Amino acid sequence: MSENKILKNIPTHVAIIMDGNGRWAQERGKERTEGHIAGVEAVRKALKAAAAEGVRYLTLYTFSTENWGRPKEEVDGIMELFCRSVVAETPELKAQGVKARIMGDRSALSEKVNHYIDKIESETADGDRITLIFAMNYSSRHEITQTVKNLAQMASEGKLSPESINADLISDSLYSREYPDPDLVIRTGGEYRLSNFLMWQSAYSELYFTPTLWPDFDKDSFREALEAYSHRKRRFGLVEPKNDSEK
Ligand code: IPE
Ligand code: IPE
Ligand code: MG
Q1: pLDDT tens, position by position, 117-164
Q2: Distance CA 190, CA 215 (A)
Q3: Which of 6, 47, 92, 122 lies 20 to 30 Å from 246 when distance is taken between CA atoms?
Q4: Does an H or E element contain 75, and which?
Q5: Is the beta carbon of 143 within 6 A of some atom in ligand 1?
Q6: Which of 195, 198, 212 to mutate to test the pocket of ligand 2 (most atoms within 8 A of CB)?
Q7: Cα 188 to averaged position of ligand 3 atoms, centre (Å)
Q8: pLDDT at 20
Q9: pLDDT of residue 85
Q10: Can 243 be counted among the known catalytic residues?
Q11: CATH of span 13-139+181-230
Q12: Does 67 contact ligand 2 (Cβ within 6 A)?
């Protein structure tokens, strides 16, 4: 791959299903938690690569609502790793102009995790180079269910007429309301599924799957995904533009 080639069509928003940490660790005879620790380094690399390429939003699927079903030791390890990483990484995030945000249902996260979420969000609030969004205790069905509940509540209180509910209002009511829809969704680890991630928002996203396990995903892997994206023709249900000299 041409390392320095300027890529066309850089996606504004890249979302990643960071999968394969457990297998990476198992392949090395290590505990699964070691894979998550190695995954933090891959987060660093992906963030750096995304910012360097001009990506404005990077969303990382960090912990799903279904992941609570894993062994307690692993769940605790992931939560602890998040808290430790906030402390270790926040100064660098600030220096790099990164605005960090968390997306998901915070109510089920511990007080400690919520404390570190407040810390990272407040300390990086001025970042204007790239927005880094951690999907924590997130799943699409949960997000959509919460949204439907909120809208139904407003309707029952007479604050919202059912006729005014449309796709834009739903988009504007989801956890992701502040962010544009992802242009590109990457899944590492070789599985071909969304696992309850951004199902509403990715209606017209380009999907990219790679067998690379998340801890092995690096700058070149990121560029390969962007390169693949640059050759995609997004039609959004329309016909091919006639004079598309860009592609
Ligand atoms: C993804 O890696 C990280 C989280 C779900 C937190 P996995 O832990 O799912 O790794 P595999 O899929 O078991 O290899
Ligand atoms: C998706 O990976 C969740 C995250 C990356 C946080 P999983 O490993 O939980 O998904 P499945 O079980 O393979 O579908
Ligand atoms: Mg997995």
Answers
A1: 999 999 999 999 999 999 999 999 999 999 999 999 999 999 999 999
A2: 13
A3: 47
A4: helix 72-95
A5: no
A6: 195
A7: 9
A8: 98
A9: 98
A10: no
A11: 3.40.1180.10
A12: yes
pLDDT at residue 35, as a whole number: 98
User: Residue 181: CB within 6 Å of ligand 1?
Assistant: no
**Is the full-model pTM beyond 0.85?**
yes
The question of whether 19 is a catalytic residue gets the answer yes
Task: With H, G, I as helix, E, B as strand and everything else as coil, classify residue 200.
Answer: coil
Q: What is the pLDDT of residues 9-34, one digit of tens each?
A: 999 999 999 999 999 999 999 999 99
Cα–ligand 3 centroid distance for 169 (angstroms): 32
Whole-number Å distance, alpha carbon 67 to ligand 1 midpoint, is 9
- Taking the C-alpha atoms of residue 9 and residue 44, their distance in angstroms, rounded to an integer, is 23
CA distance 18 to 27: 17
Walking along the chain (247 residues) 10 residues at a time, the average pLDDT comes out as: 76 99 98 98 98 98 98 98 98 98 98 98 98 98 98 98 97 98 98 98 98 99 98 94 58
Q: Where are the domains of the chain?
A: 13-139+181-230
Element (H, E) at 229: helix 219-230
Q: How many degrees, rounded to 5, is the angle at CA 134 between CA 221 and CA 130?
A: 70
